[in-house]
Design brief:
By secondary structure, the chain is an alpha+beta fold. It has one domain. It contains 4 helices and 2 strands.
């Protein structure tokens, strides 16, 4: 399956496996409390919560696979691949726009 990831406003395409069994065992979050990745809200104390979750994601070797899995399976809640719900919605909009172009 083709995967598109965003890097400095440029778009890169690569091949990755979206089968969770293949990449989840390598995920940096595998031994982290799952609640960290599901902050309540996006303001106030949740800002620190989100930053902490993203910090784990940015150390992860399978961040691209995680992000792409969340996009392909429409994960609406939580931090996936270092992105919030709003960031993933933006990625989906940009991809739709690119497909129409």
């Amino acid at each position: 399956m083709s995967v598109t990831t965003q890097t400095n406003a440029a778009v890169t395409t690569s091949m990755v496996s979206l089968e969770p069994k293949i990449w989840r065992n390598s995920a940096a979050c595998r031994d982290t409390d799952p609640d960290l990745f599901f902050p309540v809200g996006q303001t106030g104390p949740a800002i620190d919560h989100i930053a902490s979750a993203k910090a784990v994601c940015f150390t992860c070797d399978v961040r691209v696979e995680c992000l792409e899995y969340s996009l392909m399976t429409n994960q609406d809640a939580g931090i996936w691949g270092g992105t919030t719900e709003d960031e993933r919605r933006k990625i989906r909009r940009e991809r739709r726009k690119q497909r129409r172009a």
